[in-house]
Specification:
It is built from 15 helices and twelve strands. It has 388 residues and is an alpha/beta fold. The protein has two domains: 247 residues, Type I PLP-dependent aspartate aminotransferase-like (Major domain) (Aspartate Aminotransferase, domain 2, 3-Layer(aba) Sandwich); 130 residues, Aspartate Aminotransferase, domain 1, CATH 3.90.1150.10. A seven-stranded mixed β-sheet has the order 1-7-6-5-4-2-3, sandwiched between helices. Strand 5, helix 8 and strand 6 form a beta-alpha-beta unit. Helix 1 runs antiparallel to helix 3 and helix 4 runs parallel beside helix 5. The longest helix has 20 residues. The protein is globular. The relative contact order is 0.12. It binds pyridoxal-5'-phosphate.
């Protein structure tokens, strides 16, 4: 399908290839391998002379459906599916970096991604410098002659800081480095990083693409040229997406636009309501005019998204009281689910970093993160009000 279709149409129809049964809903191809007509066809498939499936670690029709659909939404030439979001980040690094290379990364990125750069990639001779998500001058100052990759998430977790995609992409380009953006929080419905000069988009499909907290998966997207080594790494080493999970994601994407709009509408109203609560010191949400980068957020994103964080007065005990007084919200570190989730970052997702590093990152003991779901707003408010 061409890009002349609107996103909600692409989400439903991109990538459909019906089998001989002409099924309406997309089929799930649960098979490890594929059968050839004869020895000659097998030989041609193996040397790439004839297109077609061989083995599901290489390609699978249901995985291809998911890849085509997500690529259409992100406006990418190619998408490569992975077994999780972390597998997507690992595969990108292993495919595009080598010993002696240097990475500049935002300090406000997913905890496991920090570990991947600090522990895994470091072991293979790749060094990483962490800089402010929002201060482009710091990115420029961190560049070395061997800098090959810039990496960031926007909005960041949990403080919803916004990185200037166009400015950082231009800087990366001028330094001969690639910019990779983890687009997990916005999804292509709200933000398309490739439109701002980003080279590579990464997803934890586990979050909003499924949207119902069922399965793990990830994806890497970009030009055919950049995706070829990423696909090659995956095909050889194996952290690929299962056909079952690909089917769940492909069907999940069909409602992505409706869900992202509903998540965002609930989140904006919840953020506005939280700002009026006397026990709340500060609310972090890109859709609020009080957000320091509200204007930049509006330039890059259609809406503020579904993640709202807020700082309660009274530190950890006050934050835990809010969490423990809820009856409906799910106390879980996950996000991007139809069901609203509530997290205390300082003692869970960010517990392993030192108190000094947490303070420097602005993650206070009174901070609470909400992955706003699709329940009635009044029910979410009433549940939070119990402990506020
Ligand atoms: C969850 C998450 C990841 C990791 O994804 P998994 O599917 O859990 O491996 C990466 N980046 C962000 C922003 C995430 O929220």
């Amino acid at each position: 399908m061409t890009e002349t279709y609107q996103p909600e149409t692409l989400a439903l129809r991109a990538g459909i290839e019906r089998s001989q049964f002409h099924e309406h809903s997309e089929a799930m191809y649960l098979t490890s391998s594929f059968v050839f007509d004869n020895a000659e066809q097998a030989a041609k498939r193996f040397i790439g002379e004839e297109p077609g499936n061989i083995y599901s670690r290489f390609t699978n029709p249901t995985v291809s459906l998911f890849e085509t659909r997500l690529a259409a939404l992100e406006g990418a030439e190619q998408c490569v599916a992975t077994s999780s979001g972390m597998a997507a980040i690992l595969s990108t690094c292993m495919a595009l970096l080598k010993a002696g290379d240097h990475v500049v990364a935002s300090q406000s990125i997913f905890g496991s991604t920090v570990n991947l750069f600090n522990n895994v990639m470091k072991k293979f001779g790749v060094e990483t410098t962490f800089v402010s998500a929002t201060d482009v001058a710091q990115w420029q100052a961190a560049v070395r002659p061997n800098t090959k990759l810039f990496f960031l998430e926007t909005p960041s977790n949990p403080l919803t800081e916004i990185s200037d995609l166009a400015a950082i992409a231009a800087l990366a380009k001028s330094c001969g480095a690639l910019l990779a953006v983890d687009n997990c929080f916005c999804t292509p419905i709200l933000q398309r990083p490739l439109d701002f000069g980003t080279d590579i988009v990464i997803h934890s499909a586990t979050k909003y693409l499924d949207g119902q907290g069922r399965v793990l998966g990830g994806a890497v997207l970009g030009s055919k040229k950049l995706m070829e080594p990423v696909y090659g790494f995956l095909r050889t080493t194996g952290p690929t997406m299962s056909a079952f999970n690909a089917w769940v994601f492909a069907k999940g994407i069909e409602t992505l636009k409706l869900r992202m709009e509903a998540h965002s509408a609930n989140a904006l109203q919840l953020a506005q309501w939280l700002e009026q609560q006397p026990s709340v010191a500060r609310v972090f949400y890109p859709g609020l005019p009080s957000h320091p980068q509200h204007a930049l957020a509006l330039k890059q994103q259609k809406t503020g998204g579904g993640i709202v964080s807020f700082e309660v007065k009274g530190g950890k005990s006050a934050a835990w009281r809010v969490i423990d007084n809820t009856r409906m919200l799910s106390i879980t570190a996950n996000l991007g689910d139809t069901k609203t989730t509530i997290t205390h970052p300082a003692t869970t997702t960010h517990a392993r970093i030192t108190p000094e590093a947490r303070a420097a990152a602005g993650i206070g003991d009174g901070l609470i993160r909400i992955g706003v779901g699709l329940e009635a707003l009044v029910d979410i408010q009433n549940d939070l009000a119990k402990g506020l």
